[in-house]
Amino acid sequence: MKRIQVAEKNKLWFTLSLILVTISLGSLFIQGLNFGIDFIGGTIVTMELHAPFEEADARGIVDKFDTGADITYAGDAKTQVIITTKKSLNTEERQALFSGFQEKYNLQAADLLSIDTVNPSIGKEMASNAIIAIVVAVLLMLVYITFRFEFLFGITAVIALVHDLIVVLGVYSIFQIQVNSPFIAAMLTVLGYSIMDTVVVFDRIRENRPKFGKHAYLDLVDTSVTQTIVRSINTSLTTLIAITSLYIFGVPAIKDFALPLMVGIAIGTYSSIFNASALWYTIKEYQFKRHEKAIAK
Predict the structure, then answer these.
(1) Which SS3 state, helix, strand or coil, does residue 33 take?
(2) Which stretches of the chain are assigned E, i.e. beta strand?
(3) pLDDT tens sequence across 254-266
(4) In this model, does residue 226 exceed pLDDT 70?
(5) Is 245 helix (H, G, I), strand (E, B) or coil?
(6) In the prediction, which pLDDT does 15 show?
(7) Cα separations (Å) of 169 from 20, 34, 85, 133, 139?
(8) Host H or E run for residue 204
């Protein structure tokens, strides 16, 4: 296989990443995130309709109370409707909502299965727990890579992880995907896949280090990446095929989880191959040149 020029073309990879990060941060600043009921509170209403329903028919009733409410189905026969709204419906609104379905689908009082209220304080606690979980995961990865390799490997890996998180957040913002409980799982999954590919590349760099000159960082990085890139791409590709199937055939809630995951795994593979190793090379090369200048003085 022809050697891939990762270190030699590091400016190209950094520029591409800078563009992605700029777009993501711009969208986060302009549009922000579409926080769902899990984070900002609201009402969840579940009803048994005794027959499959069209979302458009249910939407005609629900839009009177909240045009932004989510409507999904449940049950083995898909006869149950779940209405999720960010608004805290009062008793009169809840009764009016059920009455609309009761009239259209000839329901009984027992067909109103549940009405759950999500407190905003619970959402704040969930948001803080999500941040803590991600920060702890990143710090533990930094400790692990530093212990297994060296501190510089750990720093460059964490920078690549932050890059991945920003881009995935950008996807949530650009497409206004609701940030709910699956968001935490998606972010942690992206972190796991990204760090896995990064460790593979760094491990090969460590193995190849004795075979190259003491300061032959460019040849070392390009050779190591070339030797591992097929493995990294194949691993991510098989995962992407499975997640793409979920996105194509899944219900809307599954699609909202699958799309950011697809982007996250793809961008995590890219950053592991091109960003982390190229950044390690750039810093090492800078340290070496600085050392040479100090000796020359």
Answers:
(1) coil
(2) 34-35, 42-48, 70-74, 80-85, 112-118, 178-179
(3) 777 788 888 888 8
(4) yes
(5) helix
(6) 92
(7) 11, 11, 22, 16, 19
(8) helix 181-208
From CA 105, how far away is CA 101, in angstroms rounded?
6
* The length of the chain, given as a count of residues: 297
Q: How far apart are CA 247 and CA 255, in angstroms?
A: 5
Domains identified in the chain and CATH numbers: 10-36+122-296 (1.20.1640.10), 42-118 (3.30.70)
Q: Are strands 112-118 and 42-48 parallel, antiparallel or unpaired?
A: antiparallel
pLDDT value at residue 122: 60
Query: Helix 277-296 and helix 10-30: axis angle, to 10°?
Result: 120
Q: What is the mean pLDDT of the chain?
A: 84
Tokens of 47: 């009803």
- Number of Cβ atoms within 10 Å of the Cβ of 196: 15
pLDDT in tens, 183-204: 888 888 888 888 888 888 888 8
Residue found under tokens 């986060």:
28
- Structure-block tokens of residue 89: 């419906």
Give the whole-angstrom CA distance, residue 169 versus residue 3.
Answer: 33
214 to each of 106, 208, 285, how far by Cα in Å? 80, 11, 11
